[in-house]
Amino acid sequence: AGRMLVEREQMLAAYRVKLWWALSLGALLASVLGWLISRRALRPVRHLTRQALAIDVQHLHLRLDESAMPSELEPLRAALNQMLNRLEQGFARLSRFSEDLAHEMRTPLGNLMGQTQQLLHKDRDAEAYHALLVSNQEEYERLARMIDSML
C-alpha cells in the first residue's frame, strides 16, 4: 500500500509538471495569437494615423482616404476630414486677411516715408513743415485705426 501511494504521488507530480508546461505553452500561444489578432485589427488605425501625420499647414488640401476603412472608423475619418475642411477655410481666410492688411498698411507707410524723405531732401519754411506734420498725423491715425480693427 505504501508503494502504491508513492507511485501515485510520483504520477501526480509528473502530471502537475505536464499540466504546468501545457498551461504555460497555452498562455504563451494565446498571448502571441492575441498580439497577432490585435495587430491585424489595428492596421486601419495605423493607416489612418500615417495619413493624418502627412497633413500639415502646407498640405491642408489632403483628406483622409476611406479606402479599406472599417465601418467603425468611418465616423472618425469623416469628422477629421470635416475638421480639416474648417482648418483649410480658416487658414485661407487668415491668409487673405493678412494679404489685405499688408496692402492696406503699405499705403499709409508709403505716404509717411515719401513725405519724410521730401521733408529731409531740402529746407522748407515753418508752414510747409506744419502741413507735412499734420498730414503725417492723419496717416498715423489711419494706421492706429487699422491696428485697432485687428484687435
TrEMBL record:
Domain named HAMP: residues: 39-92
Alphabetical keyword list: Kinase, Membrane, Phosphoprotein, Transferase, Transmembrane, Transmembrane helix, Two-component regulatory system
Single GO term (MF): phosphorelay sensor kinase activity
Pfam family, one: HAMP
TM region(s), chain numbering: 20-38
PANTHER family found in the cross-reference section: SENSOR HISTIDINE KINASE HPRS (PTHR45436:SF3), SENSOR HISTIDINE KINASE YKOH (PTHR45436)
Protein's name according to its UniProt entry: histidine kinase
High-level lineage: Bacteria, Pseudomonadati, Pseudomonadota, Gammaproteobacteria, Pseudomonadales
